[in-house]
Amino acid sequence: TLAAVPVREDARDAVVGSTLAGIPQGARVGTSSLRRQAQLKAIRPDLEVTPLRGNLDTRLRKLDEGQFSAILLAAAGLKRLGWAERIEELLPVELMCPAVGQGALAIETRSDGGRGQTAARMLNHPETHAAVSAERALLRGLGGGCQVPVGAHAMVQQGRLTLRAVVVSPDGSMLVRRETAGVVEEPESIGSRLAEELLRAGAEQILEAVYGTS
Q: Which of 51, 42, 53, 48 is nearest to 23 (CA)?
């Protein structure tokens, strides 16, 4: 069972090799995530956005070899693995909405309880847990998995949870963005409600097209 979610690392996406505005027109940019690819195409349709495979060291090596003008990666991974100095720009979540749970860690324990579960819960950060719960509820409401062009990010301030989300067509031509808020004690309700809003606003058609071609 999910026993705890510790304090979240930076949830933003990072540009390595250049700033976003500094990438030349028509340049080749690599990223592994369909979510990042789709949003980047919506922001910079002039770029050649290409899938980027391999572990972090491999991806950085491909950039250094000149295969790409820039690459997009999760800031949390770069920071945790000691590559923070390679970050040229951290993209605001309002511009590049992160993946559900990005930057957060989950601690799972046996479902039968015991000392392990009790110890793990001491590491729980309630605000992060609530934020991630809202994001996960949204993804469930959309019927999405890890490889769909859906971004979501929740923040907790003064007892209120604000959740923003985006659904983008893979080519970046269609984008549905919505935001909602509610009391922090009801994260799953907030996530489910925003999922319904997105579906009504056109996300359903985008996701049907994605699933139809996957």
A: 48
Rg (CA), the chain: 18
Q: What distance lies between CA 203 and its chain's CA centroid?
A: 17
Predicted pLDDT at 114: 77
Token duo for residue 84:
């923070």
Is the Cα dihedral 52, 55, 56, 59 positive or negative?
Answer: negative
Q: Which of 129, 174, 137 is nearest to 8 (CA)?
A: 129
Q: What is the dotted CATH code of the domain comprising 13-91?
A: 3.40.190.10
Other Cβ atoms less than 10 A from the Cβ of 193: the count is 19
Q: What is the pLDDT of residues 131-168, one digit of tens each?
A: 999 999 999 999 977 678 999 999 999 999 999 999 99
> Tokens at residue 173, please?
């031509």
Amino acid at 13: D
Residue at token pair 């579906």? 199
- Assign domain 2-8+101-213 to its CATH architecture: 2-Layer Sandwich (3.30)
CB atoms within 10 A of CB 140: 14
Tokens 């080749």 appear where? 28
Q: Taking a C-beta distance cutoff of 8 angstroms, is the pair 195, 124 a contact?
A: no
* Domain layout of the chain by residue ranges: 2-8+101-213, 13-91
